[in-house]
Amino acid sequence: MSTKNAILHLPGQDPIELPILKGTDGNDVIDIRKLGASGYFTHDPGFTSTSSCTSAITFIDGNKGILQHRGYSIEDLATHSNFLDVCFLLLDGYLPSKEESEAFHNTVINHTMLHEQLVKFYLGFRRDSHPMAIMCGVAGALAAFYHSAMDINNKNHREIAAFRLLSKMPTLAAMSYKYTLGQPFMYPKNNLSYAGNFLQMMFANPCEKYIVNPVLENAMDKIFILHADHEQNASTSTVRLAGSSGANPFACIAAGIASLWGPAHGGANEACLNMLIKIEHIDNIPKYIAKAKDKDDPFRLMGFGHRVYKNRDPRATVMRNICHQVLKELNIKDPLLDIAMELEKIALSDPYFIEKKLYPNVDFYSGIVLRAMGIPRSMFTVIFAISRTVGWISHWKEMIGQPELKIGRPRQLYVGKTNLTFPSNYKQ
């Protein structure tokens, strides 16, 4: 993989040759693993200039607005595929044949039930618990029910764990929601799609028949696809770091859920809706646009621009189309949705937004869609967790199978005191 070396000159030492690695995307990366022997190491808060692993799962070019899974663009996958086929692609590295797709779908759909003792686990939470708090607990608790198949060095066991997590996550999520409402749990139905089953478990009740709206089912499937993986983000890196110690996959996914819960990561679409609530009325938009343009004003428009994408977020175009389909289907009259649509129109035409490339991102549209579907804000990040589970599992499986796997152990730049003398008159 290495074709040339970088030469590092350090005071009082011979030059150090560091291999330059080249990925299939054409990026050159300096391999600094030999640097530690010199007594030096790098300082990189947030690891924004550090590659922690090699991966063949997801490629992002933020400058060009490209997101690909196993070489396929997110636009093509969202347009021509479905979530479970994308899951197969992420996990196994290629698009399934018709027979493989059917077998994969059947395996996932037929393992959505929870152990009944795990269902009772929910009773230990307060009714007003945040659904993400419940998700952290019940996802980790899966390890207590499937400990007989958690030999991570056994490829077959890894496959079984992957199917269990992928299959049961929507059930865990829907039950977290139902529990906070005080409503009875709706068990999964094997004749429904992955997305349709989730909607049924969320919104059905035992008193009347529930029919899944195909437009909403398609929208949920697309939301799952668009959030399935996003390279080495905070939660994925958390799963990898936890997994590097040899922890079981259920514990690793619970760690990923905890990381995703942070408002700087998984709470972006919820933050967008909070912003719309703050704007309050469509007539107030010019005032808030002015505040957003004022660099001395702390107000920021949420859902515009992206840390990774310096161009358009490729997921946003797909999500925008889904958003308008859902709003048309439901014919909802919601002041917040009116504000959102007016903000979208301004962002796509205002020179300030265009010059700074502050295009609406996927979080802007997904929050609108989820609200229109009747999903409360407290469940937004939970749905993100359902989507991202397959990405987490894929990276965990890839990492476990790599010969270069080592337990994660970042260094630190210590700036505290040293060699203090313990006071002789110290008393507790």
What does this structure look like?
- The protein has 428 residues and is mostly helical.
- It contains 17 helices and six strands.
- The strands form two sheets. It has a three-stranded antiparallel beta sheet, with no helix packed on it.
- A hairpin with a 5-residue loop joins β2 and β3 (28-30).
- The model has no long low-confidence stretch (mean pLDDT 91).
Portion of residues in helices?
Answer: 40-55%
**SSE sequence, one letter per element:** EEEEEEHHHHHHHHHHHHHHHHH
- Please report which band the strand proportion falls in: under 5%, 5-15%, 15-25%, 25-35%, 35-45% or over 45%: 5-15%
Class inferred from helices and paired strands: mainly alpha
Evaluate the radius of gyration.
Answer: 24 Å
Spatial strand arrangement across the major sheet? 1-2-3
Number of strands: 6
Molecular shape: globular
Mean pLDDT: 91
> N-to-C terminal Cα separation, in Å?
59 Å
Helix count, per DSSP?
17
- Uncertain residue segments: none
Kindly report the oligomeric state of this protein: single chain
User: Which sheet architecture does the biggest sheet show?
Assistant: 3 strands, antiparallel
What is the element layout, followed by pairings?
Blueprint lengths: L1 E7 L7 E7 L5 E3 L27 E4 L4 E4 L2 E2 H7 L2 H10 L5 H12 L6 H6 L9 H11 L13 H27 L12 H10 L10 H13 L7 H10 L5 H12 L7 H12 L5 H9 L20 H17 L4 H13 L3 H5 L6 H11 L7 H21 L28
Antiparallel strand pairs: 1-2, 2-3, 4-5, 5-6
